[in-house]
Specification:
Blueprint lengths: L1 H19 L2 E6 L4 E6 L3 E7 L3 E7 L2 E6 H5 L21 H10 L2 E9 L4 H7 L12 E3 L6 E8 L1 H13 L1
Parallel strand pairs: 6-7
Antiparallel strand pairs: 1-2, 1-8, 2-3, 3-4, 4-5, 6-8
Helix pairs in contact: 3-5
């Protein structure tokens, strides 16, 4: 009987660990890299060095591939039969997806834009000092275009935001 209690506690601790571990999305276009990281569990990273590379690490398993290797064997899409009498399960989906997006926290956002036209850059230069974009948007005249974005969330917040509309 004690081993059953121990096993249930282990499963409960594992589920708690998965729900409380932080998810992070990092995008930096100055050095072309995008990374999604589930802290203490794994990460996936894509970057460019003469070719696009993908690196996966989940717990103790790690794999590095080029994107051209992944394109060699494309998956065949399944055909879903169209049914006219199918009920609409997705009528609340836009609102739920918006709630899920609101649950994410942007920790860093920097956007530098140069349109290539001096007059357009001058017209948009006020964005450098606008109240909500100050420090985040930089209009420039020296041919710099980049995006640095860091977003984080926890899985329990995503699940709660998704099901909140059906609970309330």
């Amino acid at each position: 009987m004690f081993w059953l209690f121990g096993f249930l506690m282990l499963v409960l601790l594992l589920i708690t660990w998965l729900l409380l571990a932080t998810l992070e999305l990092n995008v930096d276009t100055r050095i072309p890299v995008a990374e999604i990281c589930w802290k203490t569990i794994g990460r996936a990273r894509i970057w460019y060095e003469r070719d696009w590379f993908v690196h996966f690490r989940i717990l103790f398993f790690s794999k590095k591939l080029t994107l051209s290797e992944l394109k060699k064997n494309p998956a065949k899409p399944k055909k879903i039969p169209a049914s006219e009498n199918r009920p609409s399960r997705f009528k609340h989906m836009p609102g739920r997806m918006l709630d899920v997006l609101r649950s994410f926290k942007v920790t860093e956002c920097r956007l530098a834009i140069d349109t290539g036209d001096y007059t357009t850059n001058a017209r948009l230069y006020f964005l450098n000092y606008a109240p909500y974009s100050r420090g985040h948007v930089m209009m420039n005249f020296n041919d710099e275009n980049y995006l640095v974005l860091k977003v984080r969330n926890r899985p329990w917040k995503i699940i709660y935001a998704f099901f909140r509309r059906s609970i309330v």
